[in-house]
Amino acid sequence: MNRRLTLNLGLRYEYWSPFSDKRNQSATLDLKAAGGPAVVFAGNGSITSQGFPQAVVDAYTSAGLRFESAKQAGLPSSLWNMQKSNFAPRVGMAFKVDDNTVIRGAYGIYDWVMPLVQYHQNTRRNPPFSYSYVSSVDNNDSTAAELVFPAGGSSYANQSPNARTFGNNFITPGALSISKNGGWNILPWDPNYKTQMAQEWNVTLERRLPYLLGARVSYVGT
Q: Contact, 151 vs 167, CB < 8 A?
């Protein structure tokens, strides 16, 4: 600006593209679906188009859970409407009071997106892509269960082959039965994602002192 005042102005723009799963195995909840709440899965095709077992979907459907695609719910294929207004101004200033004194200051807005691990926690645990399998053991057998490699047969009389040893038939989707019991466990999210934002500013007074010494006092705020 002049010999005493220096300004540094900047503007940053960021667009965070939505996370997506390679096989579209992510889901959220649509409370406004026709006919009642429904689980919304990513993608615009069939929920089984990427190789997900039809038997699992059928078991959930038989237990009363409803499904719809992102397209049917009026959402993007990724299930996210990402914010597009992430403008972040930055301002820096230095003012020379005299030959021994300078005042500096700065202000900025900073954005950051949801961590990937949080996205996985919210989507991978939702039905139908997350379900548990309970293998009952013989209550009269005191032998501890073991993982055997390579996979071998089960030593328990009431088990199917490989059930205790994580073999190929450890879980057979075709034999899956799901019960609603007390309800469903789902972690939904708002599809209209709002980028997290922080404002930061600072002011500094610097003074040159005798004997090659200097002093600095700063205030930093967020």
A: yes
pTM over 0.70: no
pLDDT(181) > 90: no
| Chain mean position to CA 61 | 26
139 CB-side CA count, 13 A: 0
Give long-range contacts, CB 8 A cutoff, 24+ apart: 111-120: 111/14, 111/86, 111/195, 111/196, 111/197, 112/195, 112/196, 113/16, 113/195, 113/196, 114/19, 114/193, 114/196, 116/19, 119/19, 119/26
Residue-by-residue DSSP string for 11-48 = EEE---PPP--TT---EEEETT-TTS-EEEESSSS-TT
